[in-house]
Task: inverse folding
């Protein structure tokens, strides 16, 4: 004969265990829901936009071997770092155009631009940009100076520029233009003056 | 002390240079249409070669895998190989492979030992395969040579080849070695004796797809090319020429070899120093080299080869004008920008000249270093990245002198600053030249007459800058 108190105690324990199981299942469902929300990689908003602004691109022209200033109106966001990225992405898109005067490989991208106080900008190119770039002293120089001068002209206060490829330092762009160094914005500005006229 | 330390650093760096692909096994193939090499793979201790890679430069070839069968079509010849079988079918007839055929990821590998019997059936015509030296001759393409010693002063050994050659030249005390990798050079005499105290003998050998000709000497010797690279003259350098030359020193030139780029066995990367080192006024740097081809200018024309050709000819033209010059990269070797700068800085020349080539644009682009706008303030120390800073005015002056000479000869030119290493690391006047064709034919860049006339103009420009460079120093 099983004592009555024991039966009642076991019944309470079973009810408690069942309740905890139901609670655990409900909590697990909530965790899954929270986790899926955290890992949702869909864009939460459209790319940063802003009112169209007048900026100067320094566009390379291979036929004459010159850099040519070109005024364009493009939408730019307010935040300085995003402005830098959008500015260079717009410049790169002109080089990717089929009628480009200085073609660069399809798929070339600006991965990011980092602005570090005081006065340092780091441009990060994607690997396609460098790996597929045409090799040559002048061709590479035109690309590097075009990126730097466009950035420093439109975002005052940048004194030095470093170019990375895929987040890493690289010796040259495509065998010639030095990427191991920090470019002095003032020196590049002087060089661009020289590069605006063909011989 | 800094020079000694720099020299030791250079020697350590050069000793650490990779041996490149010299140790890799490969077969050199010489055919009327192309000379090339294909790597050899080891399978079960036997040497195999990819048949598709071997045949591709010779004509239209395609292959299709069908289970264990590998069907090949070369020009109008069909062949079938079966994985693991030691016989193949070529034009419907059996051909012995001696070892099993290997099909590896769709790539057909045949035993190297089978090439002698297989290739005549596939390619037609005479095929000679020297298996120990891994050299394969398709058709009558061999280049032969004669060696004649002239007991003049200085002693000269004249090598006449039946076709133009462009060997890689390496030097060490007592020996000058010419390595012919692309040229089908052959010789029936392994040893040549000359009964001369300066150049007593030469020896010929073959191995791993290359032919080597070693000129043994008891004194420093140099090689000069002439006759459209069909003649190489080995000349003993007079002892007097090894001393530091005065501005009026006579040119060091192989007599009767106008138009020849000399190659000396005086100090160069990879070479041991000779007892009385020569001081060089100009250091010429042939850009790129080794597996760094630079720009592919057209077809098989590479920037590294054009740069080396112009550099050698510029050295000769400078020597002709009494200006001692050294080519840093005098063979198909890869040097880093740092090695080039270290070598230049320890040589302490008046001017460093880097040679590049390009297919775009016309004429010559002259470059000086792009340096920061403000003066550096490192106290008594010189930063490696801006070692060029104190010399930038001299560099611009040299570039202007060369540009003036180019203008005088109506060669299109342009002068710019550029972020091109090692210009900013060089502690003397330094310029770089990027040579593009004058007209529309890119092939001109490789033509000896074009290179020679350009080198002469550049040498005139450099000579005209010499006085100013010496004054600024």
Result:
């Amino acid at each position: 004969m099983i004592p009555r108190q024991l039966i009642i105690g076991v019944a309470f324990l079973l009810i408690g265990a069942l309740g905890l199981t139901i609670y655990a299942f409900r909590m697990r469902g909530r965790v899954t829901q929270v986790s899926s929300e955290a890992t949702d990689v869909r864009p939460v908003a459209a790319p940063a936009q802003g009112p169209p602004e007048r900026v100067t691109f320094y566009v390379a022209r291979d036929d004459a071997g010159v850099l040519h200033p070109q005024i364009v109106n493009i939408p730019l966001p307010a935040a300085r770092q995003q402005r830098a990225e959008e500015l260079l992405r717009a410049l790169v898109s002109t080089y990717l155009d089929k009628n480009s005067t200085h073609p660069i490989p399809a798929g070339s991208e600006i991965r990011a631009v980092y602005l570090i106080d005081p006065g340092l900008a780091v441009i990060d190119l994607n690997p396609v940009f460098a790996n597929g770039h045409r090799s040559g002293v002048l061709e590479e120089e035109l690309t590097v100076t075009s990126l730097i001068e466009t950035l420093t002209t439109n975002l005052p206060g940048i004194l030095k520029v470093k170019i990375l490829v895929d987040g890493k330092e690289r010796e040259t762009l495509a065998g010639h233009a030095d990427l191991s160094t920090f470019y002095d914005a003032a020196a590049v500005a002087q060089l661009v003056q020289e590069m605006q006229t063909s011989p | 002390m800094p020079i000694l330390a720099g020299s030791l650093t250079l020697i350590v760096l050069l000793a650490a240079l990779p041996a490149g692909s010299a140790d890799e096994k490969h077969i050199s193939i010489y055919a009327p249409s192309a000379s090339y090499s294909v790597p050899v793979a080891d399978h079960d201790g036997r040497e195999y070669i990819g048949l598709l890679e071997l045949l591709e430069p010779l004509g239209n070839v395609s292959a299709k895998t069908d289970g264990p069968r590998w069907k090949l079509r070369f020009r109008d010849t069909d062949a079938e190989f079966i994985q693991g079988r030691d016989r193949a079918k070529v034009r419907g007839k059996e051909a012995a492979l001696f070892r099993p055929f290997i099909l590896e990821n769709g790539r057909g590998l045949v035993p190297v030992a089978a090439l002698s019997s297989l290739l005549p059936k596939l390619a037609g015509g005479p095929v000679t395969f020297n298996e120990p030296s891994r050299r394969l001759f398709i058709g009558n393409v061999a280049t032969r040579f004669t060696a004649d010693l002239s007991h003049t002063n200085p002693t000269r050994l004249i090598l006449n080849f039946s076709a133009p050659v462009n060997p890689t030249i390496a030097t060490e005390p007592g020996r000058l070695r010419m390595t012919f990798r692309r040229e089908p050079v052959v010789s029936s005499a392994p040893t040549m004796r000359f009964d001369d105290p300066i150049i007593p003998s030469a020896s010929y050998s073959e191995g791993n797809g290359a032919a080597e000709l070693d000129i043994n000497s008891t004194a420093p010797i140099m090689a000069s090319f002439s006759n459209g690279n069909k003649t190489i003259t080995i000349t003993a350098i007079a002892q007097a020429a090894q001393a530091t030359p005065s501005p009026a020193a006579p040119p060091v030139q192989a007599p009767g070899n106008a138009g020849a780029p000399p190659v000396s066995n005086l100090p160069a990367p990879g070479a041991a120093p000779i007892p009385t080192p020569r001081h060089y006024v100009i250091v010429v740097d042939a850009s790129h080299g080794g597996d760094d081809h630079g720009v592919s200018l057209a077809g098989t024309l590479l920037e590294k080869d054009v740069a080396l050709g112009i550099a050698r000819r510029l050295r000769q033209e400078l020597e002709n004008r009494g200006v001692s010059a050294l080519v840093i990269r005098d063979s198909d070797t890869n040097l880093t920008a740092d090695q080039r700068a270290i070598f230049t800085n320890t040589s302490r020349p008046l001017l460093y000249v880097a040679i590049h080539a390009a297919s775009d644009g016309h004429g010559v682009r002259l470059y000086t270093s792009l340096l920061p706008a403000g003066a550096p303030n490192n106290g008594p120390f010189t930063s490696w990245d801006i070692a060029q800073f104190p010399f930038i005015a001299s560099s611009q002056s040299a570039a202007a002198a060369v540009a003036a000479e180019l203008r005088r000869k109506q060669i299109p030119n342009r002068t710019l600053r550029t972020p091109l290493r090692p210009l900013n690391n060089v502690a003397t006047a330094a310029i770089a030249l990027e040579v593009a064709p004058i007209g529309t034919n890119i092939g001109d860049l490789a033509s000896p007459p074009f290179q020679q006339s350009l080198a002469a103009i550049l040498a005139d420009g450099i000579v005209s800058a010499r006085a100013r460079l010496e004054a600024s120093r």
